[in-house]
Design a protein that fits this description.
By secondary structure, chain A is an all-alpha fold. Chain A has eight helices and no strands. In chain A, helix 1 packs parallel to helix 5, helix 5 packs antiparallel against helix 6 and helix 6 packs across helix 7. The longest helix of chain A is centred in the N-terminal third of the chain and has 32 residues. Chain A is globular and about 55 Å long. Chain B is flat and about 90 Å long. Classes of the chains: A mainly alpha (208), B mainly alpha (468).
Amino acid sequence: MVRLWGILKANFRLSIRNNLSIAILYLLIIPVLRSIENLNEIYSAECLEQSVILIGILLIVPLHAAEHEAAIRDVVFTRKIPQWMVLLIRMITAIVMLVLLTGIFAEIMIVKNCTFPYMSYVVGTVISELALGSVGFFAAVLSNSVIAGYLVSIGYFLFNYLGNISDTNIFCLFSMRTGDFITKVWLFGISVLMITNTLIYVKKKKVC
Amino acid sequence: MKLYLRECRGIASSLVYFLFIAVLVFSWWGEFRGVTKTEIDRANGKTPANVGFDRPLLTEPTKEDNYFGMKTSEDNPEDIMTGVTRALLMEYKNNLYATYPLPVRNYKAVSLSSKEQARVLEILCEVTGLTEEQLSNLPQGYFPAVTGTIISTDAADFDEDGNLYMQSREDNKTNVIEEMDKTKKFIPQVTYERFKELMREMETMIGEEDSQYSTEMMITYFGLSEMGYEEARSEYDQTIKGDKVTGSFARLFCDYMGLSLGLYPIFIIVFMWLKDHLENMTELLYTRKVSSLKLVLTRYLAGITMVFVPVILLSFESLIPLISFGSEHDISIDYFSYIKYTLWWLLPTIMIVSAIGLFFTLLTDSPIAILLQFLWWIIDKGATGLSGDTKSTTLMIRHNTLRGYELIEDNFHAICVNRLLMAGISILLVILSVWVLQQKRKGKINVANIYGKALGNIKSKFSFIHTK
């Protein structure tokens, strides 16, 4: 138990803390960029899905970044704790942080007189964050470059933002504004698949 | 030259470049691909000409035509007053007034105090000539089916292929029974000038930018009117003689590509510089004979070239059918429109995005440039209107239409200032990057040490994990 706590603490400092600070800073900027007051269900969904979900990129994509340096990679893949397990621990921590941050932000919106079903909107937003982050995480691990991960995630977000992915597509990140939660089930499935594949890839990867 | 070609090859063989090409092509595919073919098909009669609001761009209008397309203007103030009053009444009832303030022009709902609401009611009564009670019990059909860009399904119809087309307003007008009773049909009780004065008061009360009551927004939302033959003729002449056909398409192409090029090139530049760092090649690079100026400039130019090449290639999808259209119809075509437009419209965008990536990556040895550029992109996208809204700091020039050359003409000075400014800042950032690299090579700037002091040394944390 003490060992697990040590691993958690060390990985939090290594892969989460700085990104969490950036995510919090970003969430604080959102009210400057757009209104989070008096929004109805549609506009609340827009705010959560178009602005808040970006913390998924900030927290999930760089989870493997620390090991991208060649020298560090050689050390990491030879240690006792398997790297895939370390990544899983980081992923779980990141998801907990996503739920916390999204929940708090949505609560602030409710206080600011926005009207929307709190629980389903928070879950829907977290799933979109997870989908957005996990595709980038997958690309980052596979290419061994966090830049490739950011490119894939931001590209995916912009395809949605610019309307290249329609509201009825299973890859749509902004389906909540149309009252559609079925897409979120698909997105959740895609995220789980991405994360599982990434971890399997890391597990099978040999030290170069 | 050898170094330049080697850098180009290095970029071309990287995964990030393939991903860049993929997102660029996907964006182009979803937005611009097929636009040229559709217009050519409409001109050749393969696709119904009366689809949507616009008339076919490449078809010569004749006086016998019964539809010449739509435009936004103040030609029909009564229509504008009708649409705005309907919107005002709806917002008054909910006490939620939609605004789209800067910086990103996202929706913001404003609620007014009871005193202000009372004043809104007075305005509504003055405009409609009705009492509060009459306003809360308006008869069916008080407002028409079409008000500006808000169209009821009664006004739209579908042809046999399932394509949407608009009924001509003249057709509609013949079916409208003239009603002169202000309680049954909206008849403005004030002049257009007085109406605009009242709406300015509304804007002041709401206190935010870009509500539906600003003159600009009123015209955009509700100032939709039909064009006449002369206007359609002059639009056609501009397309064929002024733009030599390709100009209109090149502008729309640049508009869409600009959205991608306002962000994605940064990934290539950041990747190029961080790769050395991640592969522990930095020290090796610093001790090479090549000067900092040559190294920075070569990589910068290689990045720009590799971004520019696929853009030019994608433009052929539109240029080639237009060349063939020109030869079929004996119309003179400007073969170099795409090159000209992409050079002065898109190149400064690529330059500034690449320069930001270069400078901040060299300065921080981190991908922070991506975050900064993404924020600029989001703000710029929100703050810039779809057409004719270029300011000196605009990153991506927008012109989201095949028409509206006059918007470019009116804005030409602002566009030139903007593009020169972007190119100038890019050059300045490149010079600063050279200086930063020189200082790093001399050991005067050591980012790892700065991070080490500020955030604690990451590598020491690693040793902590492994010793546990």
